[in-house]
From TrEMBL:
It comes from the Bacteria. This is DMT family transporter. It comes from Streptomyces genisteinicus. It is found in: Cell membrane. Keywords: Cell membrane, Membrane, Transmembrane, Transmembrane helix. The chain crosses the membrane at residues 36-55, 67-89, 95-115, 124-144, 156-174, 195-216, 228-248, 255-275, 287-303. Its main location: membrane.
Length: 332
């Protein structure tokens, strides 16, 4: 994976795998959202536990505070994030959930600009406005389609949950990047993925018995049971664990300005995949709102790439090293 084209292809593969998280909640009905989340991340956590056991000698060299931090961001960035995504997608629309969560590059940009100024605040105005217009169109369209007051209430709560997922994921990305920039010695990518997996898996294993007990009885009939087990295995082992490893390794050879566009493709994949599951075509307002969101992301990326090139030119006299996206690895 030495060349950028191969790394980009690998990162796109990871983004496609993660995008299935947006359609799984509707696909496993009548299983509860909590059962899907706890089942998925219990398997993800077991993968992490196996890796940490194999690398226990290296693990002992990592300070306890960093181990705790890895577990914490795994809990917040995976478990809490997907709780919000699952309930949002099943209460309303996987398409809208995917698009709202996909606006997180702007949230990351604002939070990241406070921590490490990458562009002027004036340059952030246009992308933020475009994103807000897009979210407004999606929200209004969804409320209009809601059936009565209960439908409208569900739509509002679903959008709030999607916004919660967006903020949670943004926190994960920014804190993960900040922490790794301040460490003199970065942990092995596989071990770090194992810690993150255990953070998500630990909470899931605790709640799994409750999730099973609160699941509708019809879920345990042969076909629904097969569906939920198959989706948990796919999301937990292939999408979460394998996708995480692909991203972490690929990100080591990807320039930082490419991180945003690659992460944004997860949203596009998720929105497209959700439509066949919901057995419908997107409405005009949804398409327009999504285009505004993507336009906002594109404008932000334009300024970010421009500023990155200016910074690179100003530091040409240095050691010639080039930052990569390894410290920004933040899959969902």
């Amino acid at each position: 994976m030495g060349s950028t084209p191969k790394n980009v292809l690998a990162a796109l593969t990871a983004a496609l795998l993660w995008a299935f998280a947006f359609v799984a909640p509707a696909a496993v009905r009548p299983a509860s959202e909590l059962l899907l989340v706890t089942g998925r991340y219990s398997l993800f956590g077991l993968c992490g536990l196996w890796v940490l056991w194999r690398g226990r000698r290296q693990l002992r060299l990592i300070p306890v505070r960093r181990i705790v931090f890895g577990l914490w961001i795994g809990f917040v960035g995976y478990f809490v994030f997907y709780i919000c995504v699952s309930y949002s997608a099943t209460m309303d629309s996987g398409f809208i959930t995917a698009v709202v969560v996909g606006s997180s590059p702007i949230t990351i940009a604002v939070a990241g600009n406070f921590a490490e100024k990458r562009m002027s605040w004036r340059e952030l105005v246009a992308p933020v406005i475009l994103i807000l217009i897009g979210l407004g169109l999606l929200s209004v369209s969804d409320l209009i389609q809601g059936e009565g007051r209960d439908g409208a209430g569900d739509s509002i709560l679903a959008i709030l949950l999607a916004l919660g997922a967006m903020l949670t994921w943004s926190y994960f990305v920014v804190r993960n990047a900040q922490s790794q920039r301040t460490w003199e010695t970065k942990p092995d990518p596989t071990l770090w993925a194992g810690l993150v997996a255990m953070g998500a898996g630990g909470a899931s294993m605790v709640l799994l018995p409750f999730a099973i007990a609160s699941t509708p009885p019809e879920t345990f009939e042969p076909y629904p049971l097969f569906k939920i087990v198959a989706w948990c295995v796919f999301l937990g082992v292939i999408a979460s664990w394998w996708g995480t490893l692909i991203w972490v390794k690929a990100a080591q050879g990807i320039p930082v300005p490419l991180v945003g566009p690659l992460l944004a493709t997860e949203t596009i994949f998720g929105a497209v995949l959700s439509l066949p599951v919901e057995n419908r075509l997107p409405t005009g307002a949804e398409v327009t709102g999504a285009l505004f969101v993507l336009a906002g992301i594109a404008v932000y990326l334009f300024f970010d790439v421009k500023n990155s090139r200016l910074r690179a030119r100003s530091t040409d006299g240095g050691d010639g090293s080039r930052a990569t996206a390894s410290e920004m690895a933040a899959p969902t």
